[in-house]
Amino acid sequence: MSAPLVSVKDLKVHFEVRGGLFSPQKTVRAVDGVSFDIGRGEILSLVGESGSGKTTTGKAILRLVGATAGEVRFEGEPVSRKNSELHEFRKKAQMIYQDPYQSLNPREYVVDIVAEPLDVNGLVDTAAQREERVKQALAAAGLQPPEDFLYRYPYELSGGQRQRAALASSLILDPAFVVADEPVSMLDASIRTGIVKLMLKQRDERGIAYLFITHDLSLAWLISDRIAIMYLGRIMETGNADVIIRRGLHPYTRALVGIMPVPGVERAGKRNLLAGDIPSAASFIPGCKFASRCPTAQEICRAECPELVEAEPGHSVACHFVKGA
Amino acid sequence: MEAQTKLLDVKGLRAYFRMGKGALRAVDGVDFGLDYGEALGIVGESGCGKTTSALSICRMLPREGYIAGGEIFVEGIDYARLSDDEIRAHRWKDVSIIFQGAMNAMNPVKRVGFQIAEAIELHEGADRKAAMNRAGDLLELVEIPRDRLSRYPHEFSGGMKQRAMIAMALACGAKLVIGDEPTTALDVMIQAQILDLLERLRRERRMGLILITHDLSILGETCDRIAVMYAGKIVETGTVRDVFDRAAHPYTRRLISCFPRIGGEKVVPEGIDGFPPNLIDPPRGCRFHPRCLEARAACREIEPQTRRLSATHSVACHLAEVKS
């Protein structure tokens, strides 16, 4: 069996923070032992609430933030911790950000924004060549005709067009792997699907693998092969997208699925809401991270942290009350 | 009294913005109403006039904006005709509004309790102690422990801040509450909590609720009726069932199809090509015709009038008339 494209093992990202001048230093465990693999052309959605560590996981894989512990392998090779050795990796692994209003330099023309990866890596020799590559990328991102967009500023584009320009820039080096951090959550539903289709098309045509970070479970179900549910720095459950939605086993997964709004459906009876908020990642939780909000938590849940174990092939759950296979 | 007077009755409302090139007709002749204890959802893409409609009711339009025509009756009083001074007596007391990302609207250097109490003091002339007491009751109403009164906004989570903003909106007992994307910036679990809270308050206080959102998926379980807005007009209105099961306007149908249905077929929805039009110079005929896949010659020339399909269901589309 060939190695997965991306393999993440026991990844941890901790930040040291000081609450105030005289308060003791605290450790924020943004990512606290996360493992998963992504195959070529596969889409894995990382789903969770704000503060669950989804974005930090994505950034740590791309080495945009330093990992405290753990290993990331890309095409079977460990990703170097030295910036000087990251050049090749960075050409093949890209990121798309949530907010196309902030991620594009407002003072640059679209052509310069999209060509930046080419310029940084010295991949084009002539201006004509550069413009040609940019036009191809814009067309692939659905900005037609591309000539019309080259010499426009981001403010002249709509939200959807901006996100397409960001996508063009991410895809211009023909990456094998893209971390997409909530790429459509700022957009209207009517525009969203166009961007999603574009991403799926790139997967089908070029075999790009995505780590799709989202809080929208229905979108995750729609586009991904597998879903990983994240809570407070750890993965609670992971498996095939349909399995997670139809017969998720973790109480947190079930809570998320239970409140998923479905268009046009009136709620029968009361919703089963989790009370309160996600706890601070700066508080040390010895047991299961979800125990404080879990409707079925027992003594053991507060004392011991459950490991992610396989409940059936390809479906793993981190809960003391779900039996391993 | 309540039986005869509707809580809200908006007739032919037009709200424009002064722009260099002329007037931007953000809201261009809309009618809608609301009874006590009822919830109306207003849905549409960004830039369709949803927020402008809401701001018009509270008379909180920005400087460039003005009400160009129509009537806004709230409990029988036409807010469109009130002076700035007169409206101040009603705003927050009879009508209040909760904004998107309102949690960032609190003053960061003042305690939350003080901020809520201040509104009560100003509007009702209550003394500090009584106002603080009421503020504590309000926090408990939105399920925040009373002892949080003395905390600062940064000590609240996003969901708690939004709850506190709801408490402020209710501080003076408003009967009409407008939520302008009140949950859009929040997480799904917090969103569900806030919607549950609004629903409970609506029942308990017989409050009229207008929920403005671009997220159709949350309307089914929260609202009684839905108005679909496009390019400054209401193109369809009806009960939740009318709109979801018998959508008569092509825009409504396309909008609904933009949301994936879990458990259904895994097909990425079509979306709607193009954008809502420029409202300084909107298209002739039906404003949706440039994006409508079903448009015919008449749609390009003649503006469709709103027609009743049933006692609860109206639509402004030439084609719907043919079908029904």
Characterise the protein shown here:
The complex is a heterodimer of chains A (325) and B (324). Chain A is built from 11 helices and 12 strands. Chain A has helices at 54-61, 87-92, 110-120, 127-140, 147-150, 159-171, 189-206, 217-223, 241-247, 251-259, 299-303; strands at residues 6-18, 25-38, 43-47, 69-74, 77-78, 93-96, 177-181, 209-214, 226-231, 234-240, 309-312, 315-317. In chain A, helix 3 packs parallel to helix 6 (159-171). Chain A is globular. Chain B is built from 10 helices and 12 strands. In chain B, a hairpin with a 5-residue loop joins strand 11 (307-308) and strand 12. The relative contact order of chain B is 0.14. Classes of the chains: A alpha/beta (325), B alpha/beta (324). The A-B interface holds A 49-50, 158-159, 188-194, 196-197, 200, 215-219, 221-223, 245-246, 255-256, 259-267, 270-271, 273-274, 277 and B 45-46, 157-160, 187-190, 192-193, 196, 214-221, 240, 243-245, 254-256, 258-263, 266, 268-273, 275.
Radius of gyration of chain B: 20 Å
What structural class should be given to the helix and strand makeup of chain B? Answer: alpha/beta
Query: Which blocks of ≥5 consecutive residues of chain A have pLDDT under 50?
Result: none
**How many separate domains make up the residues of chain B?**
1
Specify the oligomeric state.
heterodimer
What is the helix/strand order of chain A? EEEHEEHEHHHHEHEHEEHHHEE
Portion of residues in beta strands of chain B equals: 15-25%
The secondary structure category of chain A is alpha/beta
What shape does the CA trace of chain B take? globular
Strand order of the largest sheet of chain B: 6-7-8-3-9-10-12-11
Largest sheet of chain B: 8 strands, mixed
Helix content of chain B: 25-40%
